Amino acid sequence: MGCDPILPAERVEEMAARGLWSDRLITDYLDELVERHPKRLALVAANSTTGDSMRLTYGALGRLVDRLAVGLAGLGVGPGDVVSMQLPNWWQFTVLHLACVRLGAVTNPLMPIFREREIAFMLGLAESKVVVVPGTFRGFDHVAMMRKLRPDLPNLEHVLVVGGEGEESFEAVLAAPPGDDRRHGAGLVAGRRPGANDVTLLLYTSGTTGEPKGAMHTSNTLISTITAYVEHLGLDGDDAVFMGAPFAHQIGFTHGVLMPIYLATKAVILDVWDADAAARLIGAEGCTFTKGPAPYLFDLIEAVAGKAHDLSSLRIMVAGGSPIPRALVPRARDVLGASICAVFGTTESNATTMTRPGDADEKAFGTDGTALRGMEARILNDQGGAVQSGADGHLWVRGCGNFVGYLKRPDLYNVDQEGWFETGDLACMDEDGYIRITGRSKDIIIRGGENIPVVEVENLLYQHPAVKEVAIVAMPDDRLGEKACGFVTLRPGQRLTFDAMIAFLEEKRMARQYLPEHLEVIDRMPLTPSGKIQKFKLRQMAAAL
Fold it and tell me: Which residues face 371 on adjacent strands?
């Protein structure tokens, strides 16, 4: 079984009838730009390993894509084949994905931080035909890792190395072939255009709860999300996109690789997250839009506050991946001088709800927005019934951006007959349709039969001047079943005791039954590569206390 989508005919017909799925590929937008605006700047990229920088016009980008598509076709890559890439935010990533689309191959981005255990599992499950890696990145030898793993990956025919030599050289595959080979290769590429409902992206979930799953997306699910996103925020071709979030995560891939081409604008990309470098690039390149996981927002505030960075061009920053600490939003708006928008989405559903620039403060600071066009959200109780406005429940979503299954795991496809996907998040919805994420179903704490509003406790603790990061998790208790344990990291030079934490929460008038029973100050939070706190690891730590 390969990348077979779960795509009922009824869904295809409905999405087409509502004008949500256009049946266009991202390479269709690229081809139009190559023809009409070949000199327009497409990509500004730097390689922190080599110190090289690259500025590509759309004409140059199109030529590189065509050459790489021919080179990959020469390696036998065709429709349905999985091409994995463990690359940072380098220009080669964008060229590689677009070349895969040309051939009908499936792009499978892998986070550069993954090592033998994760890579062996992911390449094996995907039955990847090709994998592209850096030679070294951030001091790690990716080539040595792949040579160690390759004997146990029988489907892996080619390992290509950016900056490599011989048969492993990515640059050799990218090189323009001689005349006859070029004509033959162009013919191969022309016959391999995929359909917009074929799987084009295989993206593993970030693993906050354990073993990752391979979520599959099509051109229609991806581009329809971008269309709604651009409309929701009022973006256009005059905007310039900065992207420091990894391309191997849904945030970076959708908004750093695809959206700039859809907008016909430039992408300015950073391969190693550094808030000072990000601020300098945003200012120097006149970037108007950026998006990243919530911790990036905190980092950027710290980098800009009291320094001479000029971020006057920045209009909008969207933070997602995890709920934004509410106390950060007004400070971020004041420091960065931009609209701060919250977004909720998943690897499976893409961006689903988002606030808008100009939303009233109570919406901008206290919610995760309304559903994007083509998407719907609903809140259900434990029995599957509707809840009253403002009441907590389980968040379900459906619409144009929903995925088309997990690779080789149709049994895990938690989508009902009407197309609703259970996200695993707890949320509430107000009378205006704005949702607020209140926690994860698996993160819920039930103390003596009463649910603890984890996110509310966390948001209050984020307001404490000593606290940098906070996560509340369950710890076992013989009498009550569970108690609440708070894990915090602190700002430099600060300290926080349990008594001081309780006094602060009581000053904020938090109900006594919601107060944590334990506090652990740690040096750093366990994070996924995309910046989400791995609460399952904190629960393990709490259980051992």
Answer: 353
